[in-house]
């Protein structure tokens, strides 16, 4: 008490200033806490991103694109690799909610089972952007937008090419299908699009279809089983390049010539896939672009700003034959 009474004028002024700053600081934190999840007033955006995993060349390119784009956009990125497990993604999203990031973005491992955690993000006033893959939630207000490919279209393009190639076939054309990860949007949709397209020719029959989990190892292993169980395989449709590349090993080991004895169609168009196509081991690729980073960062800035964004942003893609792959390869970035 005595000490307080004897405080000099400059000390008293400093104490008053300190308490003003303290109250001001708390108020500033309080304001941003209620203003869209963000906690900082420095204008910097923090994004929490939950990635599927590192299962394919596509995924690696996608991760690089997101990290580079975040740095270029001045966005602080918190990144988590879910190792292809939904429970890891849910955990990561809950952590981001606790950390009060400004925006959450993620590429869902599977389509179903997101409503609860998305509702938690919404209640915390943190906008969510879906990238690459979507969810099947009926309540579209649980996320701001979905940026990514039309996977049904990719499967259709693959099937339509095959229909054209086999239009003069007089007997059955046996197709085996390597599906992506079970329950993932690209696996469901590519299967659907392909089936719809080949329905145009009753000679085209899928005689076996199984998941290879989007990995090379999975593609190789399942193709070995297909080859053992089916003496006549004319076509392989693989839901991504990596599974197709794994299958090449199995086909060669079985004494068959990939691209000749078995026509191979894949999706993605990553460098290794394009090389296989240029070399004549693959026959056709429907492109799926992983370079989503710049658009994602742009969307993050807009949603943080409270601007309206389109509910769906579709990635522009193309297809490749062997000749087109030879031409495109030298400039392929991933
Ligand atoms: O969701 C995109 C798909 O996921 C890619 O086609 C595949 O390679 C990846 O694992």
CATH superfamily of the largest domain: Response regulator
Strand content: 15-25%
Overall mean pLDDT: 90
Heteromolecules bound? alpha-L-arabinofuranose
- At CATH level 3, the topology of the largest domain is Rossmann fold
Q: Please give the CATH class of the largest domain.
A: Alpha Beta
Overall geometry: elongated
Q: Count of DSSP E strands? A: 12
**Topology pattern, helix = H, strand = E:** HHEHEHEHEEHEHEHEHEHEHEEH
Largest sheet: 6 strands, parallel
Structural class: alpha/beta
Runs in which pLDDT lies below 50 for 5 or more consecutive residues are 1-36
Q: What is the helical fraction, as a range of percent?
A: 40-55%
CATH architecture of the largest domain, please? 3-Layer(aba) Sandwich
* Whole-number total of structural domains: 2
Subcellular location: Cell envelope
Domain Periplasmic binding protein: 49-308
GO molecular function: carbohydrate binding
Region (Disordered): 315-334
3D structure, described in words:
With 334 residues, this protein is α/β, with parallel strands linked by helices. It folds into two domains: 46-149 and 290-317, Response regulator (Rossmann fold, 3-Layer(aba) Sandwich); 151-288, Response regulator (Rossmann fold, 3-Layer(aba) Sandwich), CATH 3.40.50.2300. Helix content is 45%, strand content 17%. α7 (185-198) links the parallel β6 and β7. α8 (216-229) crosses α9. It is elongated, with a radius of gyration of 26 Å. The site of alpha-L-arabinofuranose has 13 residues, from α3 and β9. Alpha-L-arabinofuranose binds next to α3 and β9. Residues 324-334 have a biased composition (Basic and acidic residues). Keywords: Signal. This is ABC transporter periplasmic-binding protein. GO terms for molecular function: carbohydrate binding.
């Amino acid at each position: 008490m005595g000490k307080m009474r004897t405080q000099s004028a400059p000390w008293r002024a400093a104490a008053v200033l300190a308490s003003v700053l303290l109250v001001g600081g708390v108020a500033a934190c309080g304001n941003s806490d209620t203003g869209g999840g963000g906690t900082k007033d420095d204008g910097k955006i923090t994004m929490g991103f939950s990635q599927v995993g590192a299962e394919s060349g596509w995924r690696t390119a996608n991760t690089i694109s997101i990290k580079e784009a975040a740095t270029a956009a001045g966005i602080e990125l918190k990144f988590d690799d879910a190792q292809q497990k939904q429970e890891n993604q849910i955990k990561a999203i809950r952590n981001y909610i606790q950390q009060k990031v400004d925006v959450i973005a993620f590429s869902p491992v599977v389509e179903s089972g997101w409503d609860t955690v998305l509702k938690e993000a919404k209640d915390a006033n943190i906008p969510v952007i879906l990238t690459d893959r979507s969810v099947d939630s009926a309540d579209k207000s649980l996320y701001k937008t979905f940026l990514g490919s039309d996977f049904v279209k990719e499967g259709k393009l693959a099937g339509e090419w095959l229909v054209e190639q086999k239009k003069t076939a007089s007997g059955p054309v046996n197709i085996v299908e390597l599906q992506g990860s079970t329950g993932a949007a690209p696996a469901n949709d590519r299967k659907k699009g392909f089936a719809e397209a080949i329905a145009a020719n009753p000679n085209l029959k899928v005689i076996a279809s199984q998941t290879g989990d989007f990995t090379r190892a999975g593609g190789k292993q399942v193709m070995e089983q297909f080859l053992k169980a089916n003496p006549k395989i004319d076509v392989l449709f693989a839901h991504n390049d990596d599974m197709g590349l794994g299958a090449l090993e199995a086909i060669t080991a079985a004494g068959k010539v990939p691209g000749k004895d078995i026509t191979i169609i894949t999706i993605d168009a990553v460098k290794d896939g394009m090389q296989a196509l240029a070399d004549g081991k693959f026959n056709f690729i429907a492109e799926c672009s992983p370079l989503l980073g710049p658009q994602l960062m742009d969307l993050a800035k807009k949603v943080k700003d409270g601007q309206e964004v389109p509910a769906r942003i579709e990635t522009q893609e193309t297809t490749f034959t062997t000749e087109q792959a030879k031409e495109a390869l030298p400039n392929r970035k991933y």
